[in-house]
Fold this sequence. Notes:
It is a single chain. The chain has one helix spanning 2-44. With 45 residues, the protein is mostly helical. The radius of gyration is 20 Å and the shape is rod-shaped.
Amino acid sequence: MSQVSTQTKQQKNLGVLTDVxxxxxxxxxxxxIKNLKNxxxxxxx
Length: 45
């Protein structure tokens, strides 16, 4: 029984890590898009 609970704990932790990775990826993607927009608007003005 204890082995099963350990496995589910590890799976939950992995899920949390995946969520954090996804959030970080989305944040960096949003930041790079903002940077690109800033660069293009800077050029045009």
